[in-house]
Amino acid sequence: MRNTFTGRKRYGLIAAALAVIAGLVGAPGFSSAQTTGSWPTFHGNASRDGTLGISGPTTSSVVVKYLLGAITGRAISASPVVDSHGVAYVADSKGTVYALDPAAHSIKWQTASSTGGAVVDSPGLSPDGNTVYVGSNDGNLYALNTSNGSLAWQVSLGVAVVSSPIVSSDGSTVYTATNNGTVYAISTSSHSVSWKYNLPGAVTGSISLGQNNTVIYAASGWFIYPIPSSGPSSTANLGVYYLSGAAASSPAVDSNGNFYVGTVGGTVDAFQPGTAAPKWTFHDAGLAPITTTPAIFNGTVVVGADNKYVYGLNASSGQQAWQQLTGGPVDSSPVIATGNGTVYVGSGDGKLYAYNITNGNAVWNASMGPAVNAGPALSPDGSVWAVTSAGDVWDFNALPSPPTPAAGPTNTPGPTNTPGPTNTPGPTATATTSPVSISLRASGGTPGKKVTLTATTAANQTVHFLVTYPNGDHHSATAKSGTSGKAVTKFTQPASKITHNNFTASVTARVTVNGANSTASAHYKIKLGKIDISVEPRSATAGATVNIYLHTRARTRTVLAVNFPNHTVQHKHGNTNGSGWIHWKYKVPKGRTTSSSKTVQLRGSTVKLHPNVTTKTSFKVT
To answer: How is domain 439-525 classified at the CATH fold level?
Structure first.
């Protein structure tokens, strides 16, 4: 495969080939005294908390737009990063990297590119700002000189790089991950891999650093894996943190070492270091996926969801403090300018929104046209960089007034200035009231028989129930409370929802009144059925090993059928022990999935009983 950056270390510069449009709408709204710093990686820093100590823009003034997508036809899916001078670095779907200079309103440089080397996550800057690291789908990590975009060095990791690089504070090590679930530490002096660690499934989002940069948190499937940043020993049992749903965001770590993750099940899980179960779990309206990496400041966690809402949550309890409705799914990770407590987030409706972090009140919004799916980036000069799905890059309030657009490196005059977008009124803030009280009781748990969930709250309210089984599966239901305030739902307990050592189901009940959520939780024990089966973990790469546990009568002949998407089947046979368990270590074969399905179905049955009993479960090949 060809490298994204080919041949010589010489890269052409462009000016007129890319439209740079300067415009100003209204008066800029930022303080002249800004905190210095940079935005060196996705979501601002190694902890991915989405903050920078600046006072961000309080109006939607646009200083400059770089219409990269309109000229090149290339999409941009990743957020920019910004150095201490305010220069932004961004990469597109063909692997071209751009350095954008807001002071000159021009493209400082761009790299050469080739097909097959898309960049799907943000670059990473070295602490001294002299090097920008870029991971590519061609399996290489590139180190470029920020002065001119020339290639300093590269290292091949063999598989697409999907995690925004993090550079250690001394600049000696770059941390990243590939889409086969391998986490890497790479030496910047030897340009080689210092250590790597293979996870059982693909890495979701970007890896993060926590606990004073001593631990790497990697989200994969239904788990968060803590990996020592110095490298795990070959015999270490690292343990895992258990999510309420499959991970959909990067972990974000607060100043106390707690970390927060969004899931495809519409939840945010908060963890304390060393405690495997969540400290709290928030459920959004409709359980829409939360793919945004949380931003955390001053006791508030901010996330966006596919249900079009942006939520402000209490970092201690997970209770909703405020919510705001946008016009489209929110896949853009929010960021926070801590100097004036302003949240910036994009939406699928093509707008960038600004909110007050304390109460969620709308500050401003600006229409950017195509969907804004990538998270914004903050700059030490007080501006906000945002990217559309069409590949256009906007810089809001970077300068107090726009200078005349400078000619590019080829001295070709730029196009005539075009006015920036007209301000669009933001959505009306959702009124928040004091949450109503709610309690929850759960009973039952025998497979094949009824489980009863009873919530007590205000009269005539719709209550949402979510059951999380030990194996990670879910059951959801709704019920309306009567005049007595009781809402009841019943369902039949399925078999094979346990793991070999966990039989406790977690239940959450939620009611929303005037935008304020109230939740209650309960637990119940699932009993062993006539036959149960569990596969651990529930996702694995081809070639990895999963553990399969089956329970039925003691010393009973059993058969396991493993059914693959390509219609091939493998069988395992064996007798249960005196406790009724049998355990298989099963290596997942390669080449058994299809482009349309990655799910493997398992059926466990007894043999020579009258009647025989059967149960099913599944796992995914990532």
So the answer is: Immunoglobulin-like (2.60.40)
